[in-house]
Backbone:
């Protein structure tokens, strides 16, 4: 595996870290692979490590290349600055797809919480857009802006015919980002006839990541086998959407 970090903005500490699987003579059919671009959550105040490298490792294990964007935060997080970071990252991956071994038409974006807002913004408002979106307990509605570093636009209003297919998961028990955010976004996708898959698990706190011990930081409330099922379901969905077997 090749691992490299490039800074898109040194002053704002915006960086893109790549995790590229090595080519193999035994797997010649996978010289070019799909990729996932990961936006960790953190209320636009920080980028959670629990929703960064562990997510990359999970997708690498499924044969995807992975990229993590650490985007503009805090005083630099006023919209659309993070969206501009996301657009720059996606352009960079596509422009260098051949050297990365990435299929430029099979790039999904995945975001959690505030990172889910950024992923949804890229998919609905971006000048360049991913080929699929994966949103984990995403912030979508402007009413959630009080818990974030900066106000946000409601992205259910921005869904259009160019919005890519979307996989969403959330929990009914999330008291930090109410499930209404995912439901409203799913309804907007439905109105625009954008294909989507939505999973709402009954129990589970906010910020579950993979819902496994190694992403729980010692907190048993962040371990949940039922919610952890989102990952294999997502991989199955993504292979169908990207038409990659």
Residues:
């Amino acid at each position: 595996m090749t691992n490299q970090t490039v800074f898109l903005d040194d002053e704002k500490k915006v960086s893109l870290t790549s995790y590229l699987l090595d080519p193999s003579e035994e797997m010649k059919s996978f010289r070019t692979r799909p990729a996932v671009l990961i936006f960790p959550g953190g209320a636009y105040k920080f980028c959670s490590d629990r929703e960064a490298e562990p997510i990359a490792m999970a997708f690498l294990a499924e044969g995807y290349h992975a990229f993590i964007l650490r985007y503009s935060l805090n005083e630099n997080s006023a919209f659309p600055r993070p969206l501009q970071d996301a657009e720059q990252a996606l352009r960079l991956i596509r422009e260098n797809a051949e050297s990365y071994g990435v299929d430029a038409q099979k790039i999904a974006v995945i975001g959690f919480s505030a990172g889910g807002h950024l992923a949804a913004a890229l998919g609905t408002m971006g000048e360049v857009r991913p080929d699929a979106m994966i949103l984990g307990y995403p912030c979508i509605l402007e009413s959630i802006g009080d818990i974030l570093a900066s106000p946000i636009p409601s992205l259910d209003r921005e869904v259009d015919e160019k919005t890519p297919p979307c996989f969403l998961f959330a929990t009914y028990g999330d008291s930090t980002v109410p499930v209404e955010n995912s439901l409203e976004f799913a309804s907007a996708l439905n109105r625009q006839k954008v294909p989507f898959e939505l999973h709402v698990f009954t129990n589970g706190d906010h910020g579950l990541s993979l819902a496994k011990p190694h992403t729980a930081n010692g907190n048993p409330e962040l371990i949940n086998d039922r919610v952890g099922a989102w990952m294999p379901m997502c991989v199955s969905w993504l292979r169908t959407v990207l038409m990659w077997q």
The first strand starts at residue 2 and ends at 9. Residues 40 and 241 are 23 Å apart (CA to CA). The helical segments are 53-60, 81-95, 97-100, 114-125, 180-191, 230-241. The chain has a mean pLDDT of 95.
